[in-house]
């Protein structure tokens, strides 16, 4: 266990300089939301640090790093392309307004180092899987399958949303087709499923404690920075979203509820 803790601290030592570098880049841009573009790359830094400290006979090292890189590069490129030229995200603008004066310095612990610590904890399945010499088995296969389904769900959901926005929909229009017909946040669900896939691989490696990582991510996506944050005021800004909430699962894809039936006599006047 002391060796595992040492390796985990090595992951933190790899993540923090990257987070500080992104913070320095954010200062002249006055855009703390660039941390989102580099979020997945924090995990790459941690994964490479864990792999460098893993036994030469670790059976999961090569294919797990391929899975990690595939997820991280796709997500980083997608968020960079999506946010390019739009300035600081409104969520980060609100944080900036609440923490004046001196936000430039406050953003280092409040945004960038906080993201680094969260990524460090969530990366626990990578630590457990990469350092284990236990042979791969059924749980590994289930983990890879969950990862693949999550990766496809996240990528397809992102693509469908990007296509919807590119079509210049009417103001207040809601995407409710494709995966978005069955979940209001299929990309977040895919992200969650993908990390539980990593968790199953870690469980197959004997690292049950690594499940704390995907558990933390699930709480964040559902209760803190994901679904709860995005939907805090969206129905006020886009009234059609209120009906979308009523009929569509928030997270896990599920057949939608039937459309609401208007009360008798409530039709449009002639």
Descriptive notes:
This protein is mostly helical. It has two domains: 1-60 and 79-133, no CATH class; 135-257, no CATH class. 68% of the residues lie in helices and 0% in strands. It contains twelve helices and no strands. Helix 1 packs antiparallel against helix 5. The longest helix has 29 residues, at 138-166. The termini are far apart. Residues 263-270 have low confidence and may be disordered.
Fill in the keyword field for this structure.
disordered C terminus; mainly alpha; 270 residues; 0% strand
Radius of gyration: 21 Å
Please summarize the sheet with the most strands.
none
Which oligomeric state applies? single chain
Helix amount:
55-70%
* Number of E-type strands: 0
Coarse shape: globular
- Please write the string of helix (H) and strand (E) elements: HHHHHHHHHHHH
Question: What are the low-pLDDT stretches, counting only 5+ consecutive residues below 50?
Answer: 263-270
* Tally of separate helices: 12
Number of domains: 2
In terms of DSSP E residues, the strand content is under 5%
Content-based structural category: mainly alpha
Mean pLDDT level: 92
